[in-house]
């Protein structure tokens, strides 16, 4: 008995155009840090101060937003820079993603 494989469906033209509409090159991008069950609040504050250079009150405000609301936008700008920030947050052990800023 052989294994039958079905080819994966390729996205249609309409789907590709819709995707292009959703990614607006004029809008900025954001680095979002998400709450996790591992890192202490003091460590998250430390990371925000060390990496981004935030003063203690700003780092603590962002950390509390992560803690109470589940996430916080910690940077906004060009996509490539936000990807670098996100990778840095991963290197520190934090959960982070990149998203396009809302209009």
From TrEMBL:
Q: Which HAMAP family match?
A: ClpS
Would you tell me the protein name for this molecule?
Answer: ATP-dependent Clp protease adapter protein ClpS
The protein's matches in Pfam families, at most eight in alphabetical order, are given as: ClpS
Q: How does it assemble?
A: Binds to the N-terminal domain of the chaperone ClpA.
Write down the SUPFAM superfamilies for this protein, in alphabetical order.
Answer: ClpS-like (SSF54736)
InterPro entries in the record, alphabetically? ClpS, ClpS_core, Ribosomal_bL12_C/ClpS-like
Q: What is the lineage of its organism?
A: Bacteria, Bacillati, Actinomycetota, Actinomycetes, Micrococcales
What is known about what this protein does? Involved in the modulation of the specificity of the ClpAP-mediated ATP-dependent protein degradation.
> Which GO MF terms does the UniProt record name?
peptidase activity
Domain Adaptor protein ClpS core per the UniProt entry, residue ranges: 25-97
Give UniProt keywords alphabetically. Hydrolase, Protease
Establish whether keyword rRNA processing is in the entry. no
Which biological process terms from the Gene Ontology are attached to this UniProt entry? protein catabolic process; proteolysis
Q: Does the keyword Aminoacyl-tRNA synthetase apply?
A: no
Q: Which family does it belong to?
A: Belongs to the ClpS family.
């Amino acid at each position: 008995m052989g294994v039958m494989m079905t080819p994966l469906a390729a996205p249609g033209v309409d789907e590709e155009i819709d995707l292009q509409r959703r990614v607006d090159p004029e809008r900025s991008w954001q680095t979002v840090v998400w709450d996790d069950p591992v890192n202490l609040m003091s460590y998250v504050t430390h990371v925000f101060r060390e990496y981004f250079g935030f003063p203690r009150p700003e780092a603590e405000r962002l950390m509390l937003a992560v803690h109470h609301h589940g996430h916080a936008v910690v940077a906004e700008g060009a996509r490539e820079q936000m990807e670098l920030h996100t990778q840095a947050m991963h290197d520190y052990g934090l959960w982070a993603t990149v998203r396009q800023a809302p209009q």
